[in-house]
């Protein structure tokens, strides 16, 4: 079975369209132009879909990065507030800060050193 939108079905549709154009009395020299228009329209739609997918992926990466950054900030604030208010070093909160930082670093949108 051939998937809809695959190059094979697009070529077939172009051939059918070209045949229909010939039956309608359009000159033979216009058929490649009409076929090319079908391919141009299809390629523009594919490019638009790919660009849209890239935008969505970038937005999702940014959302995940922001979420992990906020987790780190919350853990850091909890840790520092307790240190300032009580003057004690809470090992559990320090461990949470460390874990949040490691998760942030593992995020694939984290800038890597060059």
Describe what this molecule looks like in 3D.
- This protein has 114 residues and is mostly helical.
- The radius of gyration is 28 Å and the shape is rod-shaped.
- The protein has one domain.
- Helices cover 78% and strands 0% of the residues.
Structure in a nutshell:
With 114 residues, the protein is mainly alpha-helical. It contains three helices and no strands.
Brief descriptors of the model:
single chain; mainly alpha; 78% helix
Order of helices and strands: HHH
Supply Rg: 28 Å
Strand content: under 5%
Counting DSSP H or I runs of 4 or more residues, the number of helices is 3
Unreliable stretches (pLDDT < 50, length at least 5) are none
Structural domains: how many: 1
Distance between the termini: 47 Å
Fraction of residues in H or I helices: over 70%
Structural class: mainly alpha
The major pleated sheet works out as: none
State mean pLDDT (0 to 100 scale). 78
Total beta strand runs:
0
Query: Which word captures the global form?
Result: rod-shaped
Topology (SSEs and partners):
Layout: H1 7-23, H2 31-86, H3 91-106
């Amino acid at each position: 079975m051939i998937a809809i939108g695959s190059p094979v079905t697009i070529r077939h549709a172009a051939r059918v369209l070209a045949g229909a154009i010939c039956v309608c009395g359009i000159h033979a020299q216009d058929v490649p132009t009409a076929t090319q228009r079908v391919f141009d329209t299809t390629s523009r739609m594919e490019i638009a879909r790919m660009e849209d997918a890239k935008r969505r992926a970038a937005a999702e990466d940014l959302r995940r990065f922001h979420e992990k950054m906020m987790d780190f900030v919350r853990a850091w604030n909890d840790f520092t507030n307790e240190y300032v208010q009580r003057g004690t070093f809470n090992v559990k909160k320090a461990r949470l800060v460390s874990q949040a930082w490691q998760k942030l670093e593992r995020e694939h949108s984290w800038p890597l050193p060059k």
